[in-house]
């Protein structure tokens, strides 16, 4: 409320500092000021101020591959000493030989095998430890910085701004739910119970007197496309009023949010900055932004250009 | 913190008013006072103060059948005019003829058919409306009062007491997640995103330009026994420090909570009051409390006797 009330009176330069003072920044502030104003006909009660954010490509970078993929790669290399058979077995052979072409050739089947081998067959507690351990030393393959240095500073400010106005901020992402929770809770200031993602099936068991949650090598839910509103309905039980994404995988979530009877806000991040980040959209294999871009234009949703709307990309 | 700090100095008569001043009440207050005291070695940070409550038999009554069952019965009767074939088809025939013996004889298969027919095949929004509509007029078959008059006043006070001490209170119940959210959010003061239950599979679709979540006639998750810690891990991502239940279906949740490295509290409600409520435990078909009772005794968990620990059962 502090921010919202001051927004109409004072300069907006203290809010969303890494955003240039463009129409898009003004639109965000105008929306938040309006729906948090008790005198506005568009006022939204605090309990219904649900804001959902995609993660890869929306809150941090996702090139040249989803960052969780590098975790899987590093896991395979670490596990290889106990799996001599991987020297001749795809997709592991490709990973061990850094042969990305062969890895791509192994297709979706290879990818699922890779993910299930590295993300299942352990307890939730042990998986959390692995991710936290990895996060301490892992660096991006080309930028050579920790992945957590590649979160988007303007989006961190947007999360903070929304929370200051009593929005409840959620991640709703295709990434693995327990991977994100272990890695990103502190980074984004979002508690585990507000991080939603793809899940494997799990099984409660008591092993030597100790209750554990075992992660099984079977997909439970793919939190992408229609899977996002399905997850939102299941985990939150309320339609968001604010949703942000960067690809066609977020279109259903934005459509769902757009159907809210409250005034809602749809935000798409457009990767337009080849110099400071990456530039890609309609034909990219990662973060394809084609149908979503068409619909955003048709429905006058907010499409943020990283190049022109953001004065900084990463935290300094 | 207000309550916790005053607890050690002043009389506890203002806290948990409908609880008699027994050892069980003292144990609850002693626990909360300890783990919320920053100077205690057992101090638990606010973010980790997760408390999970079973619903049926723990927060409200569950005899002579789970209250959601009466919703299903009433739905069948309402839908019957469009289903003339139900006059001869079980389990519907039994429901329409109020023949509980025949209904029981239809077994688990009949029950699932009944639940899926009445709880699936509509959108989430329409289902929510049905439950809310039903809740306005539905009354208990023998007590002849609204079901919401049959919540346990001492447990309402416990929820309030925990929230006053910055515990985040959740329902984790075998009941249907969307049924409970539509019915109980206001009653318990627990927002939809903190109500977890059994789920059917859902499917996002756009129908005539409107995004909807369709409820499918297929079980997604049975939130009972081991399913409870599985749900807690999935929805919350943290192990609770406080858990309450009333039957063997809650044992896994209490075991899971008991394995927390923080000091934790396990509470079982024992239905011992045939005069004011119902008395049942080891041999009951609903709310069977047998293995759980044995383990509670062995592990010195808190077993609340409704007859001796509670001065009132229902709100006045
Ligand atoms: Ca994305
Ligand atoms: Ca129960």
Word description of this protein:
The structure is a homodimer of 316-residue chains. Chain A has 316 residues and is α/β, with parallel strands linked by helices. Chain A has 2 domains: 2-64 and 145-309, 3-Layer(aba) Sandwich (Rossmann fold); 67-137, no CATH class. Chain A contains 13 helices and 7 strands. The first copy, chain A, has helices at residues 2-9, 23-35, 67-79, 92-96, 100-105, 107-119, 124-137, 153-164, 177-188, 227-236, 251-258, 291-298, 306-309, and strands at residues 50-53, 168-176, 195-207, 210-221, 242-245, 265-270, 302-305. Chain A has a 7-stranded mixed β-sheet with strand order 4-3-2-1-5-6-7, sandwiched between helices. In chain A, helix 3 (67-79) crosses helix 6. The longest helix of chain A is centred in the middle third of the chain and has 14 residues, at 124-137. The relative contact order of chain A is 0.16. Chain A binds chain B through residues 47, 124, 168, 177-178, 181, 191-193, 195, 199, 202-206, 210-211, 213, 225-230, 233-238, 252, 255-256, 258-259, and chain B through 47, 124, 168, 177-178, 181, 191-193, 195, 199, 202-206, 210-211, 213, 225-230, 233-238, 252, 255-256, 258-259. Residues 54, 56-58, 246-247, 249, 287 of chain A line the site of one calcium ion.
């Amino acid at each position: 409320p502090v921010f919202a009330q001051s927004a109409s009176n004072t300069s907006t330069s203290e809010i969303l500092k890494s955003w240039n003072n463009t129409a898009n920044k003004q639109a965000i502030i105008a929306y938040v000021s309006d729906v948090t104003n008790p005198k506005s006909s568009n006022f939204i009660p605090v309990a219904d101020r649900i804001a959902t954010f995609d993660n890869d490509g929306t809150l941090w970078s996702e090139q040249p591959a989803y960052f969780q993929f590098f975790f899987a790669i590093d896991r395979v290399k670490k596990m290889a000493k106990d799996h001599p058979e991987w020297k001749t077995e795809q997709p592991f052979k490709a990973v061990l030989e850094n042969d990305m072409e062969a890895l791509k050739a192994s297709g979706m089947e290879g990818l699922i095998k890779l993910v299930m081998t590295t993300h299942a067959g352990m307890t939730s507690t042990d998986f959390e430890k692995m991710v936290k351990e990895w996060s301490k030393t892992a660096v991006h393959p080309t930028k050579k910085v920790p992945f957590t240095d590649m979160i988007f500073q303007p989006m961190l400010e947007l999360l903070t701004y929304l929370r200051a106005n009593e929005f409840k901020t959620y991640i709703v992402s295709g990434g693995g739910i327990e991977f994100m929770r272990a890695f990103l809770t502190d980074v984004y200031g979002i508690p585990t119970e507000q991080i939603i993602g793809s899940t494997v099936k799990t099984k409660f068991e008591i092993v030597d007197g100790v209750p554990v949650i075992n992660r099984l090598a079977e997909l439970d839910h793919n939190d992408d496309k229609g899977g996002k509103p399905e997850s939102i309905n299941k985990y939150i039980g309320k339609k968001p009023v604010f949703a942000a994404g960067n690809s066609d995988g977020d279109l259903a979530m934005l459509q769902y949010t757009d159907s809210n009877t409250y005034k809602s806000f749809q935000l798409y991040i457009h990767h337009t900055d080849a110099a400071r980040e990456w530039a890609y959209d309609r034909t990219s294999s990662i973060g394809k932004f084609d149908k979503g871009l068409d619909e955003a234009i048709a429905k006058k949703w907010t499409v943020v250009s990283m190049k022109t709307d953001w004065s900084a990309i990463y935290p300094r």
